[in-house]
Structures are given as C-alpha cells and as structure tokens.
Amino acid sequence: MTQEPIGSPEIYRLQVNGESHDVQDAWLGESLLYVLRERLGLPGSKGACEQGECGSCTVLLDGAAVCACLVMAASATDADIVTVEGLAPDAALTDVQAAFLDEGAVQCGFCTPGLIVAVHHLLEHNPEPSTLETREALSGNICRCTGYGRIFAAVDAVVASRADQAAR
Amino acid sequence: MSVLTPSTIDEVLAHLAERPEALLLSGGTDVMVEINMAHRKAPAEVVALRRVEQLRLWRHNPSSEGTGGTVTIGSGLPYAEMEHGPLAELFPALAEAARTVGSPQIRAAGTLGGNLGTCSPAGDGLPVLFALDAIVHLRSIGGQRDVPVADFMVGVKQNVLEPGELVTGVTMPIRHGWQGYSKVGVRNAMVIATASACLAMDRDRGAVTLALGAVGTTIIRCRDAEGWLAGELDLSAEPLDISDAVAQEFGRRAAADARPIDDHRSTAAYRGHAVGVLSSRLLRRAAA
C-alpha cells in the first residue's frame, strides 16, 4: 500500500498541455510555475509575486484555474495541467487572445497570459457572464497598465462573437 | 526531500504512521508562499492530499429529532465549493467567509483543512467554525477522535494535532436563523483579515453566537456579549427588533472580549474598534 517516495532518483512526470514531461534532477519543493518555466521550456506563465496575489501564473489544474506558484509541482504528478501555451494548437491564437489584440487589452503584457487563461476558464463555465461576474472572475489577476477597461471590452467581444457563431 | 501523493485516507494514515513529522500539504496556498519566499525550510517529507477524493466530499446528516441535522465537510473541499450552491444555502456565514478568501484562484485551492492545519487567527474559515461550534474530526492509524474546534486551536498557528494525525473534516449543526461573516482589511479584495467576526443566530435555542478573528491568539467566542443579548431580547422571535442602543452595546461587549495586538498589519487599538463595529453591524444585518 505504501508507495515508494518520489525522490531518489528525483524524477517525476507531469502531464502538461496533453504531453507527458519528465522532470529530472529537480528539487521537489519547486513550484509548478518554476518547473514550467525553467525545466519544461514553457515560459508563458509569468512569475511576479510568487505568493498567489497577482494571477500572472494562472494555469488550469484538472480544470480549475489556480496559481501555478502555489502548486508544489511534485504533488501534481497525475494532474491534467493546461498552460497558456496549450490553449490553442500550433501557436495559433485563441479567440480570447485575438480579442485582447483587437481591443488593445495588452500594454506591458506581463499579466496577459494569466488573464487569457482566466478568461478561457470563465467563459467555459459561464458563457455569458454579467459585468459583475466577469469582474469577480478576473479579480485574482492584477493588471497595473490598462485599468481593465480594455480587458473587459475584450471579454465582451468574445462573448458576442461566440454567441453570434452559436446562433448561426 | 520526498513527496508522497496518496489517493485514499488509509494510505495517508499509513504514510503518516511511518513519517509522523511529514508535512501535510492541502491546497498549498500557505505552505508554498513560505517555501517560495524562503520563510520556511523545505520540509524533508511531504504528504500531498490533492488526490484524496474522500477528503473533498461533504454530506448532510439528517437528525432523528426533527431539527436540521448536521453537515460534515471534508477537510479537502476547496472554498470555491462553499461560495455557491447547497452548502452556501445551509451555511450562509461559511459562504460569505469563503468568498473573502484570497482570489478565485486561491479559493479553487484553499480548504478548511488548510485553515485548521495552519491555525492562523486570521484564517477566514475559523470564526465560522467557532460560531457554529464545529467538531473537528481527526484520524490516525491508531483510531479517530472528535475535538470541538475551540479545543482544537490553542494558539497562534498552534493546534492539538498529534504527529501522525490527519484532519479529515468538520461537522456543524444546521441552524435556523440569520448568520453572516464580516471582515476588514486594507482593501476590499484579496486581503488577509485585520479583524473579522462571524455571527450566527440560533432561533430554536433563542441564542446567538459570535466569534472574532485576528484579534487574539485564537479565535475568540464572545460569551459575555452572547449571554447579554439573549437576556435582553427574545432571540427566537422573527423578525428581531434591534435598537441602535442594543447593537452598540453588543459591539462594545464584543470589543471588550477581543485581545488584539499591534503588528505589521494593524494596531491593537484599530483592531479593537473595528471588531466592535463589525459585531454591531452583523447584529443589525441579522435584524434587517
């Protein structure tokens, strides 16, 4: 019943964006954010506060939007992890990313990947959010440039275009 | 360092029996901050609870006596699950407290088990557990014990959890009557409490309970204010008629029970004042 501790040798496996990745020779206390960026070559998730306040590292962990900086990577060995790189195949833009560009919802861009993941998560669970619901869903993603107006406009644009497509 | 990822409670307990000093990792929102900021030496052994589905369940225990019965909430259920839906209807105060925990990303990870394991007086779930007289369920490979939450938390980040023990969940009675949670911090969103309070009416017993957070070494139950109010008014009545004088005196008595300190987040004087205002406001909301 007792499983072998992961640790010697220190190799574990993560499922990220549908692919299996071996993490080798890593210290097991590392956050998922660090492992994604520094060990797996996935620098889309950004590290700013590293204490769960800014949302720049938001990823999907078994479908829940969480801060990758607060996930111990070695504890997520069986989880389905999706990063901003995994939202669309072959480096294509998702409709949310395209709307952020069209609406000018990006200035310095540091918060953008986390916001993109958070918006995808919101619209997957609530395709037509009220203004309050959008603000609430994005309240864990701090942007210090835009004042959020353009970001909310981008969300509204995606909602409208998805509704339009569904009606056709 | 080792990280174990068991998937059942029995596996967790077997690991803990072999490694009683192992760190139990629930949502990670406290532990990982300390590790990232190098405030905590990396634990030698970690037992991660993420895969233990049994800890993420909750159930209603109906009563044979015609009362509302009780609800048992698994220690690994994320706060996000308490904000809306059936649990929020059963425990509005828990829903309000859950809603104030960090950001949506934090609430998708953080748990009552984490609040109990960390036992910070500022933990948002704890005043609710104290106001509702929650029972904390502990298990080890040697057996299980049930501890009233007021006996579980014994100091700042101190509890009676023994090496080898796991918090599996809490059980709280379903009460008739208004209940709510309020807190103040330096801003409106994503903030650690400077002072907090949970008030819960119990119309069947004609009683009220009030618990204060972040104004003492543990959560503080305001027995004096509770008893005084029950003597002043018929608390089984609906609607309650709360005069300004009663609300103010209730807040004054609550503040007198607080034992706040000065620290990096606030001053004792402000905390004492704030917790009195919060208690008065909660009582006014109960009557509204």
Written description of the protein model:
The complex is a heterodimer of chains A (168) and B (288). Helices cover 34% and strands 14% of the residues of chain A. By secondary structure, chain A is an alpha+beta fold. In chain A, α2 packs across α5. The model of chain A has no long low-confidence stretch (mean pLDDT 93). Chain A folds into 2 domains: 76 residues, Ubiquitin-like (UB roll); 79 residues, DNA polymerase, domain 1 (Orthogonal Bundle). Chain A has a 5-stranded mixed sheet with strand order 2-1-5-3-4, with helices on both faces. Chain B is of the alpha+beta class and 288 residues long. Chain B has 2 domains: 172 residues, Uridine Diphospho-n-acetylenolpyruvylglucosamine Reductase, domain 3 (2-Layer Sandwich), CATH 3.30.465; 109 residues, Enolase-like, domain 1 (2-Layer Sandwich), CATH 3.30.390. Chain B is 34% helix and 23% strand. Chain B has 12 helices and 14 strands. In chain B, the strands form 4 sheets. Chain B has a 5-stranded antiparallel sheet. In chain B, strands 11-12-13-14 form a 4-stranded antiparallel sheet, sandwiched between helices. In chain B, α10 packs antiparallel against α11 and α11 packs antiparallel against α12. The longest helix of chain B is centred in the C-terminal third of the chain and has 20 residues. Chain B is globular and about 60 Å long. The model of chain B has no long low-confidence stretch (mean pLDDT 95). Classes of the chains: A alpha+beta (168), B alpha+beta (288). The interface between A and B is large, with 38 and 39 residues.
